[in-house]
Write a structure and sequence with these properties.
This protein is of the alpha/beta class. The chain has one domain: 3-Layer(aba) Sandwich (UDP-N-acetylmuramoyl-L-alanine:D-glutamate ligase). It is built from 8 helices and 9 strands. The strands form 2 sheets. It has a 6-stranded mixed beta sheet. It has a 3-stranded antiparallel beta sheet with strand order 7-8-9. α1 links the parallel β1 and β2. α7 packs antiparallel against α8. It starts with a strand and ends in a 24-residue tail after the last helix.
């Protein structure tokens, strides 16, 4: 049987992030993807022009339908929208023994806010303790902790440890927003810190990088990989997707990464 991963997130009409990016990453890595849509967004590579949340009843019904029939091995949480959706998702996952990867989506690449500030406490209280892995970028980590954005690796490690005290079993501090020739992610776990570094690629086509990385990790967990192995493979996969992003030529703003860069084109 093919492993199944579930993404619970918002829909991106431009196809580069959210549910669409997650399903592409799942497929590229050999995992069947199911989905629960928490919100519709009208967006492209330049902007988010409208967001319409799904009702709590619809979110709950989607979660129930998926788990009633599919043997889900891992769950990835992305854009949840607001406190009611967060509570509904937390209730839908209660009592289910499987890895949960929480990507705390707060702001789109265009700068548009996707998580209201009033939903932060609900995220901290109801979902962080459920997270097998939390994958914040540096501004998101700072928002969750109510502190300044980390400027050095020592600060990233300390913030990762602080986020673990809020309940997440492991934290991947993503360094894409930092400066320097290297992009460094730090996996902070109970047993220590794993440093994942790659040369920074100069491209504006980075739409969906956070969604893609977290979905790629969830794919590995669904396949039974250990956490460090799943994160390491996902890190390499995303680096390849960013390196090939300029070959897609999608949109006139922040274009998407190339999810299927490992597949040879026959065109």
């Amino acid at each position: 049987m093919i492993p199944i991963a579930l993404t619970i997130a918002g829909s991106d009409s431009g196809g580069g992030a959210g549910i669409q990016a997650d399903l592409k990453a799942f497929s590229a890595l050999g995992v069947y993807g199911a989905s629960v849509i928490t919100a519709l967004t009208a967006q492209n590579t330049r902007a988010v022009t409208m967001v319409e949340p799904a009702s709590a009843a619809m979110i709950a019904a989607q979660i129930g339908a998926v788990f009633d029939d599919l043997d889900v091995r891992a769950v990835k949480l992305g854009m949840l929208g607001g406190p009611e959706a967060i509570a509904t998702v937390a209730q839908g996952l209660a009592g289910r023994d499987l890895p949960v990867l929480l990507d705390p989506v707060m702001v789109a690449k265009s700068g548009d806010r996707l998580l209201p500030t009033e939903a932060l406490e609900a995220l901290r209280r109801q979902l962080l303790p459920r997270a097998t892995l939390l994958t914040p970028n540096l501004p998101e980590a700072a928002d969750l902790l109510g502190c300044a954005v980390a400027q050095a690796e020592e600060e990233m490690i300390r913030q990762g440890q602080d986020l673990r005290t809020l309940g997440a079993r492991a934290v991947l501090m993503k360094g894409g927003h930092a400066a320097g020739a290297e992009c460094v992610d730090l996996l902070v776990t109970e047993t220590g810190v794993t440093r994942l570094a790659a040369p920074r690629i100069e491209t504006r086509n980075t739409h969906g990088t956070g969604c893609t990385l977290s979905a790629a990790i969830a794919a590995g967990l669904a396949q039974g990989m250990a956490m460090e192995a799943a994160v390491t493979r996902a890190h390499a996969y995303l680096h390849g997707a960013i390196a090939a992003a300029d070959t897609l030529c999608v949109g006139s703003g922040h274009g998407p990464v190339h999810h299927f860069h490992q597949v040879r084109s026959h065109g």
